[in-house]
Specification:
heterodimer, A: 395 residues, Rossmann fold, five-stranded antiparallel β-sheet, B: 296 residues, mainly alpha, 77% helix, flat
């Protein structure tokens, strides 16, 4: 499981004067499901295209199994890609799309009378047929061989794209926002499906997405990126529970991020009140960012609260209410199953493990305030709304 | 109601007039190409004699042959060159692509007479320099003891220059017709093909070519039509020994318009008309298919 397969070593990338990747260091293990997660323009697709061989970093090395592959063209890499919007060949039917990679003669080096001879080898027809059919069965598209691509639904096209990439038995499958064009329901189904396929085939998946839910649900490892830099690498649990800076805390799930001062190990001061926490190792009186997840806040009677505030907005979300509470002019999002009407005065309690203290970073003060919170705001800020990502650079 | 009807009559009359002026001369030409007599005014009965004579006129047959040869060769060369140029343009940055496409369009807008004269002057200037060298310098080569004197061949306007001219004015039409197909193509297709094991050349053959083929064929058809059709540029670049059909017809009219000219012009008209219909039918079919694809 933990054998290293791909390593990006100090990768730096520039288009004209724009820095796209700012000295990325990353290794990817064999059979791992790794997700590159970040907002549009963060460099995740560029990273994927470097691994696929479509781009070459301005400086730095790309290693595959310990061998430098910077100059190896895409068709010689043991990597296959599922492209954004699938990039299926419209002039070929489902079978021929999947068989495409198998029909291309491969160079094989053979020992012959003491000499190594390389020659072009074509796969026998029967083998191509068998492998394509096997692949179509894995992606649940048996019986669709003869269909034309334009006669398929989005989800089916997606499956063809996956089958087409996997039929070549790559060591690594690269997926570039593969579920971006599907509707919510289908996306959930395909997430399960992809995870199943990855485990069944026993290969490495490198997955690019801007959807944090998708990343958390599927990955072994999540790499959060922004501004061409890696912000945090870790398991989904690590990333959610122990965000390294305000950007990660805000991008993964909802977070209230408040200025605080570390008074002692395990004691942080917010709004001039001391709170118990589990974080240690900060200097005395160091200014910090305090992250509090909306679901970690308990609403109690005003008289018993550690903090007292006024409810300014309530939105019913099904399982819980999104409640916006004003504490001394700073608005928090609290997710609670208790309904608190607008203008009611409430108190809150936070357990020590609900408080995460972060060092100050360049992202401090940018996120985590829900003053401008509204339904429309949420929609606009949702990363699903994404114009043509990064493709402009290849123009 | 009555004004409405009056308008309808008026607009129909207007349309009839437009079409009359557009097509009456050609109709007249076609009708009199089947006239039994020599007259271009009096109908003397149906006959195919002018067509028969046409095929016995060696000058005309020779120029038909020249026209077809130069058109086919120029179309083939221009289609290959234009297609690759379009692909080159397409993979350029937008900053460069737009001005280059404009430059590409200028020769099409340019008056034929200007293009023709310019090319003629260019060929004459270059060949003049070359011929000066050829007549004043010669190489001697000592090969196996024998001494050979090699002189450079002299160059004149002729079939070669005619072909070069036709290739030149055909290329922009091919580029113009291939470019939109490239733009419509999903740019990831080539990456996908390379990802699956193709070299760039294999990807070109297996993916790009099938995708842009309709554009290439339309471009070739337009180029061929333009070549068959051309008179002015050919006139200035063909020299004195080579003659295309259009040039021969022009030469014949100097001795008066004979029914033979009617016949050959009719054939030329029908050929070009046929090609244009093919191009248009193909385009409207492609549009329908694209609309269908978008619906589904």
């Amino acid at each position: 499981m933990s054998k290293e397969l791909i390593r990006l070593s100090d990768c730096f990338m520039k288009f004209d004067d724009d820095v796209i990747l700012d000295h990325i260091n990353l290794y990817i293990n064999d059979k791992e499901f790794l997700t590159l997660l970040g907002p549009s323009g963060c460099g995740k697709t560029t990273t994927l295209r470097i691994i696929g061989g479509f781009l070459s970093p301005t400086s730095g090395d790309v290693l595959f199994d310990g061998v430098r592959i910077n100059d190896v063209p895409p068709h010689k890499r043991k990597v296959n890609t599922v492209f954004q919007k699938y990039a299926l060949f419209p002039h070929l039917n489902v079978f021929e799309n999947v068989a495409f990679g198998l029909r291309i003669p491969r160079t094989q080096t053979v020992e012959q009378e003491g000499k190594t001879v390389s020659r072009k080898v074509k796969l026998p027809k029967q083998e191509i047929h068998d492998r394509v059919m096997e692949m179509l069965e894995i992606v649940n598209l048996k019986g669709f061989e003869k269909r034309s691509i334009s006669a398929l639904s989005g989800g089916q096209q997606q499956r063809v794209a996956i089958a087409r990439a996997l039929v070549n038995r790559p060591k690594v499958l690269l997926l570039d926002e593969p579920l971006g064009a599907l509707d919510m329901r289908l996306r959930k189904d395909m997430q399960q499906e992809l995870k199943r396929i990855q485990q069944e085939m026993g290969i490495t998946f490198i997955y690019v997405t801007h959807d944090q839910e998708e990343a958390l649900a599927m990955s072994d490892t999540v790499v959060v990126m922004d501004g061409g830099r890696i912000q945090q690498i870790g398991t989904p649990e690590d990333i959610y529970n122990e965000p390294k800076n305000a950007f990660v805390a805000d991008f993964i799930g909802e977070s209230n991020i408040i200025d605080g001062i570390m008074r002692a190990d395990g004691v942080v001061e917010i709004f001039n009140r001391k709170f118990q926490c589990l974080d240690k190792g900060f200097a005395k009186d160091e200014p910090v960012d305090v992250v509090i997840r909306p679901e970690d806040v308990d609403i109690v009677d005003e008289s018993q609260g550690q903090l007292r505030g006024t409810v300014t907005a309530v939105t019913f979300k099904g399982v819980h209410y999104d409640t916006i509470v004003d504490f001394y002019g700073f608005k928090w999002l609290i997710q609670t199953t208790d309904f608190c009407p607008v203008d009611s005065h409430i108190g809150i309690k936070i357990d020590p493990d609900g408080i995460h203290v972060l060092k100050k970073s360049q992202y401090s003060g940018m996120f985590g305030d829900y003053s401008s919170y509204s339904e429309e705001y949420e929609e606009i800020s949702d990363a699903d709304y994404e114009p043509e990502e990064e493709s402009g650079h290849e123009e | 109601m009555s004004t409405n009807r009056k308008n309808r009559v008026g607009s129909r009359l207007y349309m009839a007039l437009v079409f009359f002026f557009l097509y009456a001369p050609i109709l007249l030409l076609i009708v009199f190409s089947f006239n039994a007599g020599k007259s271009g005014v009096v109908w003397q009965g149906f006959s195919l004699q002018w067509y028969a004579e046409l095929f016995q006129d060696r000058l005309i047959i020779q120029s038909v042959y020249t026209t077809l040869l130069v058109s086919v060769l120029a179309t083939a060369i221009a289609t290959v060159v234009g297609t690759f140029t379009a692909i080159g343009f397409f993979s350029m940055r937008r900053r460069w692509r737009a001005p280059l496409l404009t430059v590409n369009n200028i020769p099409m807008m340019n008056a034929d007479i200007v293009t023709g004269v310019a090319m003629c002057l260019f060929f004459v200037a270059v060949f003049g320099g070359w011929n000066y060298l050829a007549s004043n310098y010669a190489f001697t080569v000592n090969l196996f003891g024998a001494i050979y004197r090699i002189t450079l061949p002299k160059l004149y306007l002729g079939f070669g220059t005619l072909l070069i001219a036709h290739v030149t004015f055909n290329i922009p039409y091919v580029i113009l017709s291939v470019s939109p197909k490239l733009r419509q193509m999903d740019s990831n297709l080539v990456d996908a093909a390379r990802d699956l094991g193709c070299t760039w050349l294999q990807a070109f053959g297996k993916v790009i070519l099938p995708e842009i083929m309709p554009g290439i064929i339309s471009g070739a058809l337009i180029a061929f039509t333009m070549s068959v059709d051309d008179f002015v540029i050919s006139y200035f670049t063909a020299g004195s020994s080579t003659s295309t059909l259009a040039m021969t017809i022009y030469g014949m009219t100097k001795k008066g318009v004979t029914p033979e000219i009617n016949a050959i012009s009719t054939i030329l008209f029908v050929v070009v008309l046929f090609l244009l219909i093919v191009v248009n039918v193909r385009e409207s079919r492609a549009e329908k298919a694209a609309a269908k694809r978008q619906l589904s």
